[in-house]
Amino acid sequence: MLKIVLTVIQVLLCVFLIAVVLLQSGKSAGLSGAIAGGMDTFMSRNKAKTWDYKLAKITKYVALSFIVLTLVLNFVQ
Fold first, then answer.
1. Which of 8, 9, 33, 63 has a beta carbon 3.0–4.6 Å from 37's, enabling a disulfide?
2. In Å, how far are 13, 33, 34, 56, 64 from 30, measured between CA atoms?
3. What tens digit of pLDDT does each residue of 38-64 get?
């Protein structure tokens, strides 16, 4: 029963992780984005409040929990 519950949670985490990654904006804007984008990120003071920063932070935590849950499911027999 425990293995079924953990598997369902893992599938939900997987779908949520895919959605969060797809919601993030792309980092490659070509050569013009590399020149102008560097100044934009250098001059940005409220980077911690942007939507992309929050999505990146959520992605890290969801991915870490997905990996930990995968390891736990591997050891549960």
1. 33
2. 32, 5, 6, 21, 31
3. 555 555 566 667 888 899 999 999 999
Give residue-wise pLDDT tens across range 10-25.
999 999 999 999 998 8
Half-sphere exposure of 49 (CA within 13 A, CB side): 3
The pLDDT of residue 71 is above 70: yes
Phi and psi based region of residue 30 (left: phi greater than 0; alpha: psi -120 to 50; beta: remaining)? left
Query: Would you state the structure tokens that stand for residue 34, as one six-digit string?
Result: 């590399």
The Cα–Cα gap between 11 and 16 comes to: 9
Q: What is the pLDDT of residue 25?
A: 84
